[in-house]
Design a protein that fits this description.
The chain has eleven helices and 20 strands. The protein is an alpha+beta fold. α1 packs parallel to α4, α1 packs parallel to α8 and α8 runs antiparallel to α9. Strands 5, 6, 12, 13, 14, 15, 16, 17 and 20 form a nine-stranded mixed β-sheet that branches. A hairpin with a 4-residue loop joins β10 and β11. The chain is globular and about 65 Å long. The protein folds into two domains: 199 residues, FAD/NAD(P)-binding domain, CATH 3.50.50; 168 residues, D-Amino Acid Oxidase, subunit A, domain 2 (D-Amino Acid Oxidase, Chain A, domain 2), CATH 3.30.9.10. 34% of the residues lie in helices and 32% in strands. The longest helix has 30 residues. Bound molecules: flavin-adenine dinucleotide (FAD).
Length: 400
């Protein structure tokens, strides 16, 4: 039975899908957003997403436009300095430390860090305030039928809805992408990431720190104080078997291992949350559209968590889609709009996926001569001020 009609169906209510629903809902489009897994919106509940998202500078305007920024800003930690540490010598200690300060290129911080569970809480609350948006947690999309003028989307409760555009934000195994028959190219690294929160005696001073040794980076990203103590979110990448071993260690042994790996930069770290494990891959879809369907976020591209690119690239997808939709609302979801979306985003996404793949491989390196070459490259890049500034701007997505 055909029940409803919407401008847009957003398949997926992860951070990207909830953002898409907010962005297009705030712009006045009628939106249905679905997710079979209801969002977990408290920190310590089972299944909560303890990753954090560092929203980089260009994200702010889109979040403001969608009405989300005012809700998020009070919970955000500023990221003023990005510190890269090479600890790839014989001993696990810093041998090169370079700091990239946002004040070299702008009067704003590089970005703002927020926990993903909190993003879900605030985004769901925002959707409730938008009368033209319906969010259906506990229900998913099951089928896709399209023709030139519309899409018909089957839902897990047996209904079908009609819309002009389907936005697939349903993750790296996107069912809508598969229903449309779009291929992906996937790279496996044999790597996983541990994501968790810590407290530490030395304040982070709004410095985000990426420590490279082997196996992948160990990254500390500032959070607001937790229970009165300075706090950071950690992403620790290693070979998959090592991550499984680390995640199963008793707390004291785990803290010993992470203190060695963090080179004691903030004093002894204390584990302040569960440890969560995430598989690491790179992936890119061969095309970003099919008839009446646009892929965004991890349905379109997945990158290892280096340089806070993942969700920020996703916001880039939404920025372009919104611009096209607002420029010609009567052409929402038509072939011209979707071809333009693909043309404006795919090459940029491919460049970022390729660049982050290289950075990840450099960070994983085990052989000592390669680790030494990596340290020399960091020194060389840093010592040339124009190169340093260009890299900062590219990292932000402020230059294409
Ligand atoms: C350890 C780690 C740290 C990261 N740190 C950062 C960072 O600092 N900055 C940054 O920009 N990015 C970061 N990222 C990337 C970022 O977390 C992801 O880009 C973001 O969470 C992607 O979310 P998504 O909504 O595309 O996918 P998901 O979170 O996977 O959401 C997809 C949703 O689709 C739903 N779904 C599945 N099937 C259906 C269906 N049939 N119908 C409807 N819905 C369906 C799922 O239930 C799920 O909720 C990090 C990633 C990792 C692994």
């Amino acid at each position: 039975m055909i029940g409803f009609e919407y401008d847009i169906v957003v398949s997926g209510g992860g951070v990207a899908g909830l953002t898409a629903a907010s962005v297009f809902g705030s712009a006045g489009f009628t939106v249905l957003c679905l997710d079979p897994a209801p969002p977990v919106t408290t920190r310590d509940q089972a299944g909560s997403d303890l990753r954090t998202t560092a929203f980089l500078q260009p994200a702010q305007a889109l979040l403001e436009k969608s009405g989300l920024w005012a809700r998020l800003e009070p919970h955000a930690a500023d990221l003023q300095v990005m510190r890269i540490v090479d600890a790839g010598g014989i001993e696990p200690e810093p041998r090169i430390t370079k700091e990239f300060d946002a004040s070299d290129i702008s009067d704003k911080p590089f970005g703002w860090n927020l926990p993903n569970w909190l993003l879900r809480r605030e985004m769901v609350a925002h959707l409730e305030s938008l009368p033209n948006v319906s969010f259906l947690p506990g229900k998913g999309t099951t089928s896709l039928f399209t023709r030139e003028g519309e899409a018909r989307v089957g839902l897990s409760d047996g209904r079908r809805v009609r819309c002009r555009l389907v936005i697939a934000a349903d993750g790296r195994n996107s069912p809508m992408r598969e229903a449309a028959g779009i291929d992906v190219k996937t790279t496996h690294y044999g790597q996983k990431a541990l994501a968790f929160a810590v407290t530490h005696p030395i304040p982070h001073g709004n410095v985000s720190t990426e420590i490279h040794r082997s196996g992948g980076p160990f990254t500390l990203v500032p959070l607001p104080d937790y229970e009165g103590r300075p706090s950071s979110a950690v992403v620790w990448m290693e070979e998959g078997a090592e991550v499984q071993r680390l995640s199963a260690l008793p707390q004291a042994d785990f803290e010993g291992a992470m203190n060695q790996r963090s080179c004691h930069l903030f004093g002894p770290l204390t584990l302040a949350s569960r440890r969560t494990v995430w598989p690491i891959i790179s992936q890119i879809a061969s095309t970003l559209y099919a008839e009446r369907l646009a892929l965004v976020a991890e349905a379109a591209h997945v990158v290892p968590p280096i340089g806070a690119q993942g969700l920020n690239m996703s916001l880039g997808d939404m920025r372009v889609l919104l611009e096209l939709a607002e420029a010609a609302p009567d052409r929402l979801g038509d072939l011209t709009m979707l071809e333009t979306y693909h043309r404006r985003r795919h090459a940029e996404i491919l460049a970022r996926v390729t660049g982050i793949d290289l950075l990840n491989r450099a960070s994983m390196m085990r052989a000592q001569p390669l680790r030494d070459a990596r340290a020399m490259a960091l020194n060389a890049i840093y010592s040339l001020a124009p190169v340093r500034k260009t890299i900062m701007q590219l990292g932000l997505g402020a230059r294409g």
